[in-house]
Design brief:
The chain contains 16 helices and 19 strands. With about 475 residues, the protein is of the alpha+beta class. A hairpin with a 5-residue loop joins strand 8 and strand 9. Helix 8 crosses helix 10. The longest helix has 20 residues. It is globular and about 70 Å long.
């Protein structure tokens, strides 16, 4: 970190009195990586970045910000996809990556306590070493932090069967806008004492408080898993397969799809042997007791073929399963290689409306002369239309904006929502009133004013 040779402003001097000056970043060159997150075309220069190592340091920084009315934006690894951790001019970026310890793994109560900066994969591996499973698996799990996952209520490929981050949070330590430290929740499986305050902060994107510790629920690791990849000549046939599997009362742990554009990009990138003439592929996984897994896998293959799958490949071992899963897990990376700017969007509709939503995305892309690859969690209706564009082309970016408005309007009209796992942040706040209605939006604003009366926590995100 380069901090010498710069004049010390009152803000930097004050922060350096709270933390070791080596953990207060303010050199313009060093600040560059903190001016954006994983969201394309959204950035703002950071004024300074601080790296607390304890909750008490976080609280001291927030107290300073509260007294002096300085905006404060918390962040982890910066993998967010809605602009939620983009800095506010003149404010403090509070980076929690040094608070990275797993503090407790309680096998008797199936819980894990970690600091907010612990990497999601680190948590999953710690659970796995004990024969347990932490199910949420966002695509960024190799680098995303658990605090960020909770703040955004992240999903993942296993969301259909296991749910999202919210379903595994049993307790939170939070620093409020005043600098007060509170603990919310407990290890108890049943706990209905008062309001469920922890749920207020899950998905709040750092606008209501700063999460410093997270207590997570773990589950027993499934004894068996089978992975299959089905290919289709039409997207409608893939969607029909999903509907038929659910109607057969089978809930796979994974039910993911890629469209033709994405298939070609993934094959160019990962070389996993995908059929380039397919219009869609479906990644299907079932896990649990070996006998149940064998039965469900056989049923899913039969359903896929009945719905028009041209091929169904079943992994013979864990190595082959990982190779098949690469087809889905590499989707974003593969698409990001195609154009200078990759805008990964996020819309969710009821599963019954999937075919209509996918057709809408394809029609909108053609009408606006845009290249869009679509993949996502077909099992829970969460689609990721991904625009392959160039933010330097202003005309094309205007067409992208118009296309996104049409896509989100259509999703809402189908009874869907504007985000299933990426959050609102800066990117989607203009769509929020139509998605949830003015009364709900007003209630959110009332809550914000109550918990953050001076508006210092991540101002301008979710709503103005």
């Amino acid at each position: 970190m380069t901090t010498s040779s710069l004049p010390t402003s009152p803000l930097i001097a004050a922060l350096s009195a709270i933390l070791d000056p080596a953990r207060v970043l303010h050199s313009p060159e060093d600040l560059i990586p903190y001016g954006f997150d994983g969201t394309a075309a959204l950035s703002s220069p950071a004024t300074c970045v601080v790296f607390p190592e304890t909750t008490e340091e976080v609280a001291a920084l927030v107290r300073y910000a509260s007294v002096n009315r300085v905006p404060i934006v918390s962040r982890g690894s910066g993998t967010g996809l809605s602009g939620g951790s983009v800095p506010v001019p003149g404010g403090i970026v509070l980076c929690l990556v040094r608070m990275e310890r797993i503090l407790e793994l309680d096998a008797r109560n199936l819980t894990l306590l970690a600091e907010a900066g612990a990497v999601t994969l680190q948590i999953a591996e710690a659970a796995d070493a004990m024969g347990l499973l932490y199910p949420p698996d966002p695509g960024s799990m190799k680098i995303s932090t658990i605090g960020g996952n909770v703040a955004e209520n992240s999903g993942g490929l296993r969301g259909l069967k296991y749910g999202v981050t919210r379903d595994y949070v049993m307790g939170l330590e939070v620093v409020l806008a005043s600098g007060e430290i509170v603990w919310l929740g407990s290890k108890c499986v049943k706990d209905v004492a008062g309001y469920s305050m922890k749920d207020v902060f899950i998905g709040s994107e750092g606008t209501l408080g700063i999460i410093t510790k997270v207590m997570l629920k773990l589950v027993p690791k499934p004894a068996a898993k089978t992975t299959m990849l089905a290919t289709y000549a039409t997207m409608a046939a893939a969607a029909d397969t999903v509907s038929a599997i659910i109607a057969a009362k089978i809930i796979p742990c994974t039910l993911e799809f890629l469209d033709r554009v994405t298939i070609r990009c993934v094959e160019d990138f990962a070389h996993v042997g995908l059929p380039l003439d397919a219009e869609a592929i479906l990644l299907m996984e079932t896990d649990g007791h070996p006998a149940v897994v064998a039965d469900e896998a056989a049923q899913m293959e039969s359903i896929a073929r009945a719905c028009g799958a041209t091929t169904v490949v079943t992994a013979a071992n864990a190595e082959e399963a990982a190779k098949l899963a690469t087809a889905r897990r590499a989707a974003f990376s593969a698409l990001a290689r195609v154009s200078p700017t990759t805008i990964l969007e996020d819309a969710t509709v009821p599963r019954s409306e999937l075919t209509k939503m996918i057709q809408c995305i394809q029609e909108v892309a053609a009408r606006h002369n845009l290249r869009v690859g679509t993949f996502g969690h077909m099992g829970d209706g969460n689609l990721h239309p991904t625009f392959l564009t160039d933010e330097r082309n202003h005309d094309e970016m205007e067409r992208v904006e118009r296309a996104m408005v049409e896509i989100f309007d259509f999703a809402v009209a189908l009874g869907g929502t504007i985000t299933g796992e990426h959050g609102v942040g800066l990117a989607k706040k203009s769509f929020l009133p139509k998605a949830i209605g003015n009364a709900s939006l007003g209630l959110m604003k009332d809550l914000k004013r109550t918990l953050d009366p001076h508006g210092i926590l991540n101002p301008g995100k979710i709503f103005d």
